[in-house]
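Researcher: I need the complex structure. Ligand is 2'-monophosphoadenosine-5'-diphosphate. Inputs:
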Amino acid sequence: MTDRYAVFGNPIGHSKSPRIHALFAQQTGQDMDYAAILASVDGFAASIRDFVAGGGRGANVTVPFKEEAFRLATELTPRAQAAGAVNTLSFDSGRIRGDNTDGAGLVRDIAANRGATIAGSRVLILGAGGAARGVILPLLEQQPAAVFVANRTAEKAAGLATTFAVGGGGFDALAGRAFDLVINATSAGLADAALPLPAAVFAPGCLAYEMLYGRDTPFMAQASAAGATVADGLGMLVEQAAEAFFVWRGVRPDTAPVLAELRQG
Ligand code: ATR
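Model: Output:
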């Protein structure tokens, strides 16, 4: 029988996950089906229950349900616990295992696809919301020289800094500092808003990583003007999907042809 998987979100119409997982399944010969399911804003848990009752084996979770998925899980992996959010659920005889593959996806895209070395480098994370929190532990596991979290609301950055024992503050704290890897985990790009970044935060040879994809953001323009190499978040999307696929199926797909196909449109 074909195993059923799905991504749950609201909105969900433009999700690339069904296409990515269909390509992975085809490539690895896994007998599975992967759908996109629109859950109502207050109907996520019910929607998951229906899916499990219908034989669903696993789910991805996207905006705005990642924190609710965290609460719904009956067990959590350490990386989901650190993220405070879940993007991958596995269903097994009444148990719901919550995982988070976002940070692993980011790290793999940076290291394997972009060829950047995180170990020993100075890392700046912009933003202190769910997206930022989700990637800090996997980044720290790569043993960077230092991690600093900067956020518009400085107190939120200070909170994350305390939790993860890294540096943190407002954007004004960036004066005089330089980084080898700058990751934009804010949602500012969705509003076409620029961030108040001194050009000198981008050290020579810096990789500037925008976690959003499908648009050129002001952050990408700022970073490029400052001489940084710029990456968008499409690779992270494919890599977090590959990590979820591995969690469910125990098989690691080759992401390069899938990423190439998505880049073609
Ligand atoms: P997500 O789950 O995408 O992280 P979130 O938890 O709402 O969403 O967090 C959004 C992040 O983007 C926050 O760090 C927010 O800064 P504040 O904490 O000060 O609100 C940041 N952000 C959103 N719009 C921004 C803008 N125009 N300039 C700077 N930061 C912005």
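Model: Summary of the prediction. The chain has two domains: 3-100+236-263, 103-232.
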